Amino acid sequence: MPEAGASRYSPGSLLMTQSRMTPAMTLLSHPTKPFSTSTSFSCASHQSTSTSLPSNLDPSLKSETQTDTGADPTDRYAAGLRLNKEWAAQTAREHPDLFPTLASGQTPQILWIGCSDSRCPETTFLGLKPGDVFVHRNIANVLHPGDLSSSAVIEYAVQYLRVSHVVVCGHTSCGGVAAAMGNKNLGILDPWLLPLRQLRERNLELLQSMTPEDAAVKLAELNVREGLNIVKQKGVVLNAIRERGLQLHGLVYDVGSGVLSELDTQDSEEVIRARLTAFQTE
Ligand SMILES: [Zn+2]
C-alpha cells in the first residue's frame, strides 16, 4: 500500500513554488486553465520521503486525510483504481456482450480530435461506451499538417477502421487558446501553439472587437475550422468522402454546461473544387 498522504510531500509539489514558476508553469497551474496539471502524484512503488511522523502515529494527519484503511480519500488515482473495479463489474452486468465483443476488436464509427483538457472526456460527455470513439487529443486540439502522431491517427481511423465521422472539437476556457491570446514566452508550447497565433494574427480585428471571453471562444472556433481544413487536405480523407460518404464535423464543447454546439462547416462548391484540385491524389 502506498503511504497515505505521500503525494502531499512529493518532490514535484515542493518545487512548484510561485517564485520558481515559469510563465508556462503559471499557465499550466492556473486553476481555471484547462491543462492545469497537478504536480502531486503518487505511485504504489514510491514511498514518502517526508521526515514527519509516520502517519499512523500522527493523529492530526489521519483525521484529515485518511480513512481507517489507510487510503487517502482525496487521491483520485487511488479512487480511480477502486472505482474501476466497480465500473467493470457494473458494465459487465448491464452490457454482458460488451467486453467479450471489445476483446475481439474495435469498430468505432467516430474519430474524435479534441483537446487534452481533463474537462473534455469525449466518450463520457457523448454518453457513449468503450469501442465507440477512436481518439486523438492534444493541447488545444491543434493539427499541424506534418505532425506524425495526428496524421497516423487520422490515416489509421479513416483507411483501416473506416470510421463514418471525423470530429474536430474545441472547447470554452481552453488554456491553449488563452495562451495564444496572450504574449508570454511559453517555451515548447510556443511552436505547438503557433497555428493558434497565426489565426489570431489573421483575425486580429475581429478578435479585438470582442470581449476577451468571446474572443477566446471565437479563436477556439476558428481553430476547429482550421483543423477541419487540414483534415480535408489529406488524400485518404478526400477519397473516403468521395467513395463512402465520410462525414466531417466541427464542434465546440462548453465546459461550463457540458453541452456541445455544432458549427456550420459546409464549404462552398468553389472551395471544394479548389481543394480537390490541389489535394486529391490517386
Ligand atoms: Zn483546451
Summarize the structure.
The chain has 282 residues and is an alpha/beta fold. 46% of the residues lie in helices and 11% in strands.
Task: Explain the layout of strands and helices.
Layout: H1 11-15, H2 23-29, H3 59-65, H4 76-94, H5 98-103, E1 110-115, H6 122-126, E2 133-138, H7 148-160, E3 165-171, H8 175-181, H9 189-192, H10 194-202, H11 204-208, H12 212-232, H13 235-244, E4 247-254, E5 259-262, H14 269-279
Helix pairs in contact: 8-10, 10-12
Bound molecules: zinc ion.
Figure out the total of helices: 14
The kinds of small molecule bound in this structure are: zinc ion
Structural class: alpha/beta
How many beta strands in the DSSP annotation? 5
- End-to-end Cα distance: 58 Å
Low-confidence stretches: 1-65
Main sheet strand line-up? 2-1-3-4-5
Mean pLDDT: 82
Largest sheet: 5 strands, mixed
Radius of gyration: 22 Å
Helix content: 40-55%
Shape from CA axes? globular
Strand content: 5-15%
List the secondary-structure elements in sequence, H or E: HHHHHEHEHEHHHHHHEEH
Structure commentary:
This protein is an alpha/beta fold. The chain has 14 helices and five strands. It has helices at residues 11-15, 23-29, 59-65, 76-94, 98-103, 122-126, 148-160, 175-181, 189-192, 194-202, 204-208, 212-232, 235-244, 269-279, and strands spanning 110-115, 133-138, 165-171, 247-254, 259-262. It has a five-stranded mixed β-sheet. Strand 1, helix 6 (122-126) and strand 2 form a beta-alpha-beta unit. Helix 8 (175-181) packs across helix 10 (194-202) and helix 10 crosses helix 12. The longest helix has 21 residues, at 212-232. The chain is globular, with a radius of gyration of 22 Å. The chain starts with 10 loop residues before the first helix and ends with a helix. Bound molecules: zinc ion.
